[in-house]
Each structure stands twice: as structure tokens, then as C-alpha cells.
Amino acid sequence: MAVHEVQVFKLGIGDQFRTLTDREKRYAHHMARSAWFGARIILRQVSPESLPIFDFILELHRTCSGNWRSLIGPDVSSENLQRFQTYAATFLSNIGNYYGSGDQKFIPGVDGTVLHNLAARSPTLAGLYKEISESINARPPFSLGHPSETAQSSYYPSHDVKESDVTMVSRFLEQNYIFLENTRLQKTDDGTGFEVLVASVERGDVAHFSLPNGKGSVRLVRGDHSSDLQRVCAELKEASKYTANDLQREFLSAYIESFQSGSLDSYRKSQRIWVRDKSPRVENIFGFVEPYRDPHGIRAEFEALVAIADNEETKLLAKLVENSATFIRRLPWATPENDGKGPFEKDLFEPPDFSSIHTLAYCSSIIFPGINLPNVSLLAQIFDALLAQTDSSLQYNDIRQEDGFKNVIIANRMVAESQTKQYPFIDASEAEQFKKHKFPAYYWWVVLHELLGHGTGRMMVESIDGKFNFDIKNPPVNPITGEPIMCWYKPGQTWTGQFGDLATTVDECRAELVGAYLMCDPELLELFGFTEASDIRAEDCEWLLN
């Protein structure tokens, strides 16, 4: 589809940045630079043409010194320039030529003649346009997905990788305790085997396997995104000179170790340390985090966020955190055992670090309103045993269950969202009332989505040494069937591995429904300040979500 209109919003951060000390500002600065160096990784993960389109936009901006109006002339009209700028803004916002939400391809609202005329401004532009002239407007592909006549995925750079190939190789590697969040998969040039491209600064083969039943071989090859990760690591090293505490130095060191070597074990180590860095003034998220865009639901997109905490807003969130156990007991699957929470919740709900933050740099294809990390998919260590050629005592208990997690609400993103001007399905007579209630209802729904949607639940797990985190002789009762559960996570199995391309859909739907369900709780809404006597009433918030 062609992009014809776009709304642009500023993520205001100046007031928060001015509250930082000089040391904190330097830390935030280098962390933000590191974050943006990850943009080219995302572009490479989206589509083959995303990188040259990105370079074309930046080169055109450089050529006109930021004075876009100077490009208007006999061969480029004001209207066509506006259409190209709309496309460029949409591209940069999504970091690629597919929507971050929905994964549909979008194309410029101008034809190739206009793009050719813009490219005539410099030899560099002309060369870049030659690379993208066919692909920028090509449809199909229409969307991201398993490579086919109608879809493409740069997680599988060779277009001849079939869905059955992905399933076979992924299952084989998972059985060998090799996990794939920071990888891509392609066929070898001769078509007889596969290469797993591991994101790392270091280059070279890691290991070679023969697939069962004579179906070829698999090589693990380090060095994917090498030069970009090198820049990411360089700025992380600079940031480490200005950390506020030892924990920050330690998780930055683990980030660097992971990005250098490709080790997901080092990344898991970073997350265990990161969750212990409570309520920092400058918060961050780095790594191959969300598997939303992999059609197989395993490989994760790079993401980097640097943000500044809002202490006053965070105090409001603390009230909910303190009362979390009360509302967990009101979830539909709660039963009397386990202190009223039932067997599908942890024995002890350890309140997470819950902060309201304002983003300074957010390098991602989607600007999320709230985030809950570490992800449930980070259940396994990767191939360090292969690197060291030794056995490894692998632990498969979830970091979240062992070490906890963090929730962040991205306040300046949500403020921008509340300023959207389009209410196409709202009657004009209700538009003002809708606008008044939209932000608080949406804000608290996201809060509940993150804290009690993603933050609750217990995975039933069998460890590699045959131990269970539940009573195997008296298994929990399935609330749907009324019978004891018959399956659980076996050694080496992960959430994403079992649910495949439905993993994130199921998880997000669950979190959305928990948030919506609890938004109907009068006691909880009163905790937020909404009663029948308040300006925005409790029933108004409930109505807006139904």
C-alpha cells in the first residue's frame, strides 16, 4: 500500500534530561549513541532493500543540507516531494519498509520517475537508487512471512529456505541446546546444507553438524552484523566510564561479551544483573529481544532503548505494585491453594521494579508504550559448550522466575499517542469525551497489561536432571478440562519453540485480556483515583475499553 498521510509527534525529553547530573548525561549520551548504531542491524533483519533505502533517505537529506524545499523544481513538484517525505518519515519510524505493527509492506506515493529525478542530485544517490529502483515499489511481496511468492523474511536471506527447512533445522538445534534468538538461517551456496548466521563482532565457524536422515548439514557461523555490533560495543565501553554503580558496569560488560562472541549465555548473565539494577535514573534495554517478526516465532529483532526515569510518576505505580497480590487472587484461574493464587502462579509474587520513563533513544521497529523484560523466551543458554568444547551444566529455569523482571511504562510515547487527531469510529458528538478519557484509560490498561498480564503466570518445567517445579505426583488441575495437566516444558523446550509463530500472539493476547479484565475492578480503579465522584469516573474508564 502507498503511504499518503502520516502524523508526526515529538517525544519530549528536555525537562527530564536537564534533571540529570553531568555524569548521568554522559552515560545517557553514549548509551543513546550505542542504541542508534543498532538501526542498521534492524534494517538488515527487515528486507534486502531496507539498508539502501535508508542510505538513500539520509544521502538526500545531506545533499540538500536539510532544506527539503530546495528539491522542488520542474522535475519534482511540491506535492510529490511531500509524498516522498511522508514515505521517508514512515520508513524511519518503522526502521524499514514494512510496518513494525502488522508487517505489511508500504511503498512511496510517487512513481519511479519522481524517485529517479530525486536521485539525479548526486552520483551517490544515483547509485543507491539503482539498487532499490525495482524493489522499493515492488508488490509482491506484500508482507513479512515465510519466503514465498507473496512474502519475504530477511531472517532467511536465501529465498529458497522452505518453512519445513526452518522447522527441521530449528528443532534439531534446539535438541542440541543451541538457541536461535540472535541468528538468521540461510542455505549454503551449493544448496546441500544450511548456515546459521550468529550475530557477533567475532567472525568464523563455531561448529558443524550433520542433519539426521542424510538431510544435509548445518554450520554455525559467527560475524553477522559484525561491523554494526562493533560500533554498538565501542559506545557501550564509553558509557561504562560513567556508570552509577557496579551493577551497571557488570551488565554493560556482559552486553559487550555477548555482542562480541554471540553468546546468549552472556546475554542471560546481563539480564540477571540488569533486573537487580533497581530504579536507575537512566534505564536501558539492549539486545535481540522480541521475536514478533520472525514467521517461525523464534529469532528476535535487535532493540535498544535508553530512557530517563520520572520519579513522581513512578511513585504512583508503586501503589499498584504494593497491592499486586490482592488482584492476582482475582484472576479467573485463581484457586484457594497457594495463598489464594492457585497452582499456576508463583508461590511468592516478588514485586518487580516498575518505573515510568521518558525515552531518549528508542531504536526499534515498534515504539512500545510499555515493556516487561526479560522475555519469557530467554529460557536457555546457547552454544558456549561448543565454543569451549566442554560440557555445560545447562539450567532451563526462567530468569523471570529465578531473578525477577522489570516493568517500564514509556510516558512520553503514551502522551504522544493520546494526541492523535483521528477518531474515525467515534461519533462527532462523543469525540471530546473520548479524547478526555482516552489517555487515562489507555495508560492504566497498559500498566495492568505489563505488570499483571506479562508479570503473572508460572511455567510448569521439568529440568535436565529430572526435577519439577510442581508436584508431579499431584499435578495442577487444568481449569478448562477439570483434569490434571498432561504436559509441561521438557528439558530444552522453550515457550517460542513450542508455540512457534503463535508464541507472541498468545502471550500478548493473554496480557491484553488480563489488563482489560482488571480494568473492571472498582477497588483497583479507586487505587488509581477513579471513583464515581471523580472527574473521570471509574465506569468511564471501563466503558472506553468495552
UniProtKB/TrEMBL annotation:
Keywords: Hydrolase, Metal-binding. It comes from the Eukaryota. Pfam families: Peptidase_M49. GO terms for molecular function: dipeptidyl-peptidase activity; metal ion binding. GO terms for cellular component: cytoplasm. This is Dipeptidyl peptidase III. It comes from Stachybotrys chlorohalonatus (strain IBT 40285). The lineage of its organism: Eukaryota, Fungi, Dikarya, Ascomycota, Pezizomycotina.
